[in-house]
Design goal:
Layout (H helix, E strand, L loop, with lengths): L1 H5 L2 E5 L8 E3 L2 E3 L4 E7 L2 H4 L2 H14 L4 E8 L5 H12 L4 E5 L6 H9 L5 E5 L4 E3 L4 H4 L8 E10 L5 H15 L1 H4 L12 E5 H10 L7 H11 L3 E12 L5 H21 L1 H10 L2 H29 L1 H17 L4 H4 L11 H31 L3 E5 L2 E6 L4 E6 L8
Parallel strand pairs: 4-5, 4-7, 5-6, 9-11
Antiparallel strand pairs: 1-6, 2-3, 7-10, 8-11, 9-10, 12-13, 13-14
Length: 413
């Protein structure tokens, strides 16, 4: 599988032989220890690609002494690759550019690139994410030298937005970062965000080799595989990943359906591991149990409220009021143990908390119902997961998996 994947990657722009990086037998052997991998797909359609290229060009120049920044075009069909090639050539940019074809659903693109470089560390990010304080990463690397540590994850912050949906996400991200303290003792985490994490390259290759290739929850599955294999992780708060979140309810709902579907796919694939965590009441298991109770409550909520209102309208109002009050105070509990995580929204935390339950409860019910329906629909039919040079067949419900190296389409069954 590794060899077939590696052959699908084409280096469009790479270090010249006269530079420190010398191309050797299709692998980029570089003296720099860190590679920042940024996959992209049809970004010319989705954003101002030129602005993002100027940002990455300035980053590549700033950190060129110790870091290689590699843009990975993942089979774009809108001319993104040509625009990047023109930009790199015109500005004589230190950016490196790789192209994957056909589209490898992000995981395959990262896997193929990781196989074709020899850096010690790999930083993963998204094309629309800004990384701030990356120089601090060099100070964290000695902390992660332990062979049992797979890497670390950055401080995720939503930025560039306004309005209730943006404020809701600011508070939600803040609360979730507060949970990192819960994981500190066993050095685990539920998700190392794909938009801002650092891995040892050899371990990342190992995890991708075990990965399903599914796109919806690719970072969650990678994290679970690492912890399942006995690796630990660190929180690296001085490096910040500034992400551009959805700014409308509809866009946020689409994002959450995809995230929830990714959670269901990972949970289904690793259900035995999750079961052991819950039965052992590890820190991961406790949070998983809480997630299960929360989702069950969200799904049953409308029916329960209807029944209570049918019995007594006063009891129904009391129940709804209790849910709203709990929703208001729930995110504020993070102030008790992770006050520093709230510093960006400290002045507005009370105001935002009143928005939280109304957006959270209305969105979560729809997002989970849609995600479950999508998951059931995929479970009833074969799901093709195409990564470079390889086709994975998942037969719903039977746990059958076949990998066909070198295939370009579904095999006959």
């Amino acid at each position: 599988m590794k060899n077939s994947i590696a052959r699908t990657l084409t280096w469009i722009h790479r270090p010249a032989d006269s530079e420190k990086g010398v191309v050797l037998e299709k692998r980029v052997a570089l003296e720099k220890r860190v590679a920042l991998l940024v996959p992209l797909y049809n970004e010319k359609t989705h954003c101002n690609i030129l602005d993002r290229l100027y940002y990455y060009d300035s980053m590549a120049r700033k950190y060129r002494d110790w870091l290689d920044l590699i843009l990975i075009d993942d089979g774009s069909s809108d001319g993104s690759l040509g625009s990047i090639q023109h930009f790199v050539a015109e500005r004589k940019s230190p950016l490196l550019l790789a192209a994957i074809f056909p589209n490898a659903r992000k995981v395959g693109a990262l896997f193929a690139t990781a196989l074709n470089i020899s850096h010690e560390w790999v930083v993963t990010s998204d094309f629309d994410t800004d990384l701030y304080g990356l120089e601090e990463l060099r100070r964290y690397l000695p902390l992660m030298r332990d062979p049992s540590v797979m890497g670390g994850y950055f401080r995720m912050l939503p930025f560039e937005g306004e309005g209730p949906i943006f404020l809701f996400q600011q508070l939600e991200y803040t609360f979730l970062r507060g949970l990192y303290r819960w994981h500190r003792k066993d050095q685990s985490v539920r998700v190392m965000p794909g938009a801002g994490s650092c891995y040892k390259r050899e371990i990342l290759v190992q995890l991708f080799n075990e990965h399903s290739g599914l796109r919806n929850g690719e970072d969650r599955e990678t994290t679970v595989l690492g912890i399942k294999n006995g690796y630990r992780t660190h929180y690296l708060p001085k490096v910040q990943a500034l992400t551009r979140p959805p700014l409308t309810y509809r866009a946020l709902l689409r994002q959450r359906v995809r995230w929830n579907l990714g959670y269901l796919e990972t949970f289904s694939r690793e259900r035995e591991w999750y079961g052991r965590q819950v039965s052992s009441l590890t820190r991961m298991g406790v949070l998983t149990l809480f997630d299960m109770i929360f989702v069950a409550g969200v799904l049953a909520g409308p029916v329960l409220v209807a029944i209570v209102f049918w019995i007594s309208w006063r009891a129904g109002i009391f129940l709804l009021g209790g849910a709203v009050v709990a929703g208001i105070f729930w995110p504020m509990t993070g102030l008790l143990g992770a006050r520093m995580e709230y510093r960006e929204i400290r002045r507005m935390v009370v105001k935002v908390s009143f928005l939280f339950p109304f957006i959270k409860l209305s969105m979560e019910w729809v997002a989970w119902v849609r995600a479950i329906l999508l998951f059931r629909r995929k479970a009833r039919k074969r799901v093709w997961v195409v990564t470079p040079g390889n086709v994975d067949l998942y037969a719903g419900g039977s746990g059958v998996r076949r990998r066909l190296v070198g295939s370009t389409g579904p095999p006959s069954v």
